[in-house]
Amino acid sequence: MGFEVGNGNNNTQEFTFDVLPVNLTQLQSLSEASLDSPFKTTALAIAALCNYEKDLNATIEMLDFLKGPENVSEYEKQFFKDRLTGKIYKVYSFFDGATPQNNYTPSQPYTIKVSANPYSFDNENWATLYVTSGGADSQRPVKLRKKPSTGQWFINEIQCLSDIRVPVEADPWA
User: Fold this and answer.
1) How many structural domains comprise the chain?
2) Which of 51, 97, 109, 156 could form a disulfide with 145 if both were Cys (CB 3.0 to 4.6 A apart)?
3) 96 with 160: CB under 8 angstroms?
4) Which domain holds residue 101?
């Protein structure tokens, strides 16, 4: 369940998951799957990406759902492969408690905060929201698009997967 901190377009919503979804059925059973806010869709995208190394096909199926009328493109699949292969810790880093020192092991239940800034909703039916990584100094963006006929928000571009500090176990200088 999300709740707002702040007011207007400059706020943060927090989402908590007892378990992370491993397939489309589990994802769709979550209350956030209504996709009636861009905050919910962003939180679900991060949760779904945690499954990337375990089951690529199930992860793509979940992301296809979150992209709405579009599917994950071949370009996006390659982007995820380049950014996440051997670096799945990047996705877990967005959950509370995950830091380089604990090899990005999040606290449980899994809690993620999704934030907006004053510019997040500058264009009608578009939003750019932000997630915070325990291994980065600045928030990372996720771009979304609203489908006016349904009022649902869908993922347009997952831009939050750039490199972060490596976990201690993978850092030869730690």
Assistant:
1) 1
2) 156
3) no
4) 4-170
Q: pLDDT, tens digit, for every residue of 43-54?
A: 999 999 999 999
pLDDT at 170: 87
Q: How far is CA 100 from the centre of its chain?
A: 19
133-145: average pLDDT = 97
CB neighbour list of residue 87: distance below 8 Å, 6 or more residues apart: 163
Whether the pLDDT of residue 4 is over 80: the answer is no
β-sheet bridge partners, residue 127 = 144
Number of H helices, E strands in the chain: 5, 6
Task: Give the number of other Cβ atoms within 10 Å of residue 125's Cβ.
Answer: 11
The C-alpha atoms of residue 136 and residue 165 are separated, in whole angstroms, by 7
Residue 137's Cα: distance from chain center in Å?
Answer: 17
> Is the pLDDT at 2 greater than 70, yes or no?
no
